[in-house]
Amino acid sequence: MRGNGDTPAKARPSLTEGPIAKTLILFSLPILLGNVLQTLNGSINAVWIGKYLGEGGLAATSNANIIMFFLISSIFGFAMAAVILIGQNLGAKKTHEAKKVVGTSTVFFFILSILVAAFGLLFSSTILTWMNTPPDVKDLAVVYTRILFAGVPFMFGFNLIMAILRGSGDAKTPFYFLLLSAILDVILNPLLIDGIGPFPKMGIAGSAVATFIAQLISFVLLILYLYRKKYFLRITKEDLPLLRINWTIIRTLIQKGVPMGLNMVVVSISNLLLVHLVNSYGSESTAAFGVAMQISSYVQMPAMAIGGAVTSMAAQNIGAGLWGRVNRITWTGVAVNILMTGLIVVVLTLFNREVVSLFLPPEGSAIALGVHINNLTLWSFIIFGVFNVVAGVVRSAGSVVFPLVVAFIALLLVRIPLATVLSHKYGFDVIWWSFPVSFTVAMTLNVIYYQLGKWRQARMIPAKA
Predict the structure, then answer these.
(1) Nearest CA-CA partner of 81 in 244, 203, 271, 253
(2) Choice among 4-8, 244-248, 265-269, 453-457 with the minimum mean pLDDT
(3) In percent, how much of the chain has pLDDT > 90?
(4) To 10 degrees, what angle do helices 323-350 and 366-377 make?
(5) DSSP H helical segments within 195-322, as ranges?
(6) Which residues, 6+ apart, have CB-to-CB distance to 364 below 8 Å?
(7) What angle do CA 37, 38, 43 make, to 5 degrees?
(8) Measured distance CA(15)–CA(168) in Å, rounded
(9) 321-370: per-residue pLDDT in tens?
């Protein structure tokens, strides 16, 4: 079946048929590789900045990167809401309704990105002052931050297109263009920072301009690619009336997106409070904890990728009314997470000291403490993966508040009081035991709600859009 110049229906990606385990793994791998790629991109750029600009440059960019992380977190919920809304519509074979979501989301993200970019360009200095940015790096941070804010429309646009593609069942195309962006960014950074060859020497501004150019080129080429391939959710000349504010869809994006965005805020607050607590035990503890958290960020990546994959898969199947398949997707996702995360945990446990030693100097007790922290916490990320997958399926139905409540309870009402109060009474190790305890609470609550709650009755698709 064809319509409006779309690709044939049979050629479109579908997550409502075929073997679940194979589909889940093939769908989650590009998401996983994309997450790894973005992390490596940031690490390599930090190496360039440190090499050419020293500690001052690193300090300036770290402050700016905190702002960028907050911005990405703020649109994460809206993007996920778009993923679910598009997925459910496609599962229900309502392609035109999915295009309505694309049209309204495009206008919404465009307006939002312009407002954010303008605000950042005008108030970068004020924002950095609020963050207590050290005076000796403040000017560098302002220059770097302003250029990053100028690139916000491309960053927001790229995230929206990735959401649309993943909602329609395509995780490969976003990865290819993330790869292009990362390669351009890594190559351009030293060229523009130090003025190598015909390139101007721009210092800290060069690093930000490199990111700006990489995002712009990747964003434009991705749009051209999708139109050349006649991607079925592209906005054609006949679809131009869909580029408008549909308030029903906007309300849905906000009502469902804000709780998912707040989930990341809860995680960030929990981590900041934990860092504040660990800092009170001295610099070696802080260093060891920092390394352990850097290692755990990689351990979490399979769970995050599988969680994103099951959300897209479940959304399409919920739209199609295939509830039996939704249940199989859930438990297949849990099993795949246990295998993938478990394998990484086993390898890191076997080579624990060697991995920690990559980040810390051989003298001092920080290495031993880092190894100890890993021994107590790494295995708990298998539990983290289980609750993340189950929560992803629950969200895909449109039930987004309960997973937020669970995160709040587990991370702020269980983990932080446990680590703060009991560590002073029973010792330093209580801080690390707060990880498996809080993750177990989150897993238990999410699984109980999945089995007994009314999440299947939630509605994402508006009655009339």
Answers:
(1) 253
(2) 4-8
(3) 64
(4) 150
(5) 204-228, 247-279, 283-299, 301-319
(6) 284
(7) 95
(8) 8
(9) 999 999 999 999 999 999 999 999 999 999 999 988 887 777 667 888 88
Cα–Cα dist 157/360, whole Å: 38
Which pLDDT does position 23 carry in this prediction? 92
User: Cα torsion at 433, 439, 440, 441 (round to 10°)?
Assistant: 110
Longest dimension (CA), the chain: 68
Q: 301-319 and 380-396 helices cross at what angle (nearest 10)? A: 20
Percent helix, percent strand, percent coil in the chain, to nearest 5: 80, 0, 20
Residue 306 reports pLDDT greater than 90: yes
What does pLDDT average to over the chain?
Answer: 88
Tokens of 73: 């977190």
Burial of 126-158, coded b for 16+ CB within 10 Å and e otherwise, reads ebbeeeebeeebbebbbbbbbbbbbbbbbbbbb
Among 10-14, 112-116, 189-193, the minimum mean pLDDT is found in 10-14
H helix or E strand, kind and range, residue 28? helix 20-91
- For residue 422, the SS3 value is helix
Give the gyration radius of the chain's Cα atoms. Answer: 23
- pLDDT, one tens digit per residue, over 129-185 is 887 777 888 888 899 999 999 999 999 999 999 999 999 999 999 999 999 999 999
Q: What is the DSSP string of 378-396?
A: TTHHHHHHHHHHHHHHHHH
- Distances in Å between the Cα of 40 and the Cα atoms of 5, 188, 229, 234, 341 are 39, 15, 30, 31, 19
Give the closest residue to 281 by CA, choosing from 444, 430, 154, 160.
430
Nearest to 24 by CA among 344, 346, 460, 389: 389
Coil, helix or strand for 212? Answer: helix
Distance CA 24, CA 4 (A): 30
Tell me what the mean pLDDT of segment 376-398 comes to: 95
**Please, are residues 180 and 221 in contact by the beta-carbon 8 Å criterion?**
yes
* Two tokens, residue 428: 């330093």
Residue 182: both structure tokens together:
């990362």
What separation in angstroms does the CA of 36 have from each of 42, 182, 348? 10, 11, 16
DSSP assignment of 297-308 equals HHHTHHHHHHHH
The SS3 assignment for 111 reads helix
Which residues make Cβ contacts (< 8 Å) with residue 323, sequence separation at least 6? 317, 456
Residue with tokens 């108030």: 123
Averaged over 242-260, what is the pLDDT?
Answer: 92
